[in-house]
Amino acid sequence: QAQLVESGGGLVQAGGSLRLSCAASGRIFSINAMGWYRQAPGKQRELVATMTDGGSTNYADSVKGRFTISRDNAKNTVYLQMNSLKAEDTAVYYCNAQTRTFIYWGQGTQVTVSS
Question: pLDDT tens-digit profile of 94-112?
């Protein structure tokens, strides 16, 4: 079945870095945009960063200047480089992929930033 396979989450100290990866697996074609969302305990899911097939990006204000999203369209893979991590970045991070007709979500990967 079609799915998004995520990797790169884990435990990191404040000020450190992590790189998340998400690859479309199965029958997902013609992805127009991919991105990352996150959900912290007790909070609703929020946008972190997205990138369209044309290369335009969108970042949450809270991560601008610290996080960078990139895509490898040939591999249907999206990355999130996270630098200068803060405790408030602790959340479950979800990969997202959009086609013209459907939206796919990854299973989520835990990112924990220790202080």
Answer: 999 998 889 999 999 999 9
